[in-house]
Amino acid sequence: MTSFAQYPSLNDCPVIISGGASGIGASLVRNFAAQGAKVGFVDIAEEQGNALAADLVAAGQQAKFQRCDVTDTAAYQAAIGHFAQAHGDALVLVNNAAHDQRHDWADVTPAYWDDRMAVNLKHAFFAIQAVAPGMIKAGRGSIINTGSISWMIMSPRIPVYETAKAATHGLTRAMARELGKSGIRVNSLVPGWIMTERQLTHWLDATGERLIEDSQALAGRVYPDDVSRMALFLAAEDSAMISAQQFLVDGGWANS
Q1: Which CATH code, of 3.40.50.300, 3.40.1260.20, 3.40.50.720, 3.30.1050.10, is assigned to 8-194+223-249?
Q2: Per-residue model confidence as pLDDT tens digits over 66-122
């Protein structure tokens, strides 16, 4: 028996998640599906996405995957439309897709800037644009924009990523005002250094371990499911009067 919360309002709720094939995204997909939600998710990792959807369907849960590059706005909005046909209009959107590619500020070109903004920010706005009419019609909905503590703690070698993630909370605040009178909540979910496979493989070393020990208020490591459990709360009707806020899941690292 799990010790974590079950949210009745998420049962049969249509949910859309971007970047759902691995890492935090895959955890989000699994956790929403376990709540009984009807999950539609996109990713460029086709093999992983198909495998995850197949696992969930085999377990009797509701999940559909479509390969999609979220930087192709027309294709992404079309995918959102296909999920709506299958599951009904989304009542939850989790703008999770992102990529923290390292870069030197001196080498950034206008083309690289535009590409990184498309990967880390632009798609979130156009996903909101696609789901908002259905939420307005329903008179309710929850939009969750995934941020990052990186700009708060001034992480090195990702200035364009940090700019996009700082702007994400600006998007949250703006759209919370635009959509709030229609019963739609918009919040930012801000992970710390999450122990995904990618982070463990590429970035976590002895120096990183010491940095976590010195920086987090809490002992231990923060995992994708820790982020997902906050997303579930923000998606559920339990958070019905919470909007325009940012919620850090970082072990007590950043000063928000």
Answers
A1: 3.40.50.720
A2: 999 999 999 999 999 999 999 999 999 999 999 999 999 999 999 999 999 999 999
Please answer whether residues 134 and 84 qualify as being in contact, where contact means their C-beta atoms are separated by less than 8 angstroms: yes
- In which band, very low, low, confident or very high, does the pLDDT at 256 lie, cut at 50, 70 and 90? low
Question: CA distances (Å), 225 to each of 143, 163, 199, 243, in order?
Answer: 19, 26, 15, 22
Q: pLDDT digit string (tens) for 167-179? A: 999 999 999 999 9
CA proximity to 136, closest of 174, 87, 89, 189: 89
The three-state secondary structure class of 11 is coil
Q: Provide the angle, in degrees to the nearest 10, between the axes of the packed helices 23-34 and 46-58.
A: 20
Q: How far apart are CA 79 and CA 254, in angstroms?
A: 35
Length of the chain: 256
Q: Is the dihedral of CA 62, 66, 69, 75 positive or negative?
A: negative
Q: Reply yes or no on whether 7 is catalytic.
A: no
CA distance 33 to 61: 6
Q: Which residues contact 161 (CB under 8 A, 6 or more apart)?
A: 98, 99, 100, 101, 103, 116, 120, 148, 150
Residue 53 backbone dihedrals phi, psi, to 5 degrees = -60, -40
Catalytic residue among 7, 76, 161, 223: 161
Cβ distance 30 to 55 under 8 Å? no
Helix (H) or strand (E) holding 135: helix 123-138
pLDDT at residue 2 above 90?
A: no
Structure confidence by residue, pLDDT tens digits, 192-235? 999 988 877 887 899 999 999 999 999 999 999 999 999 999 99
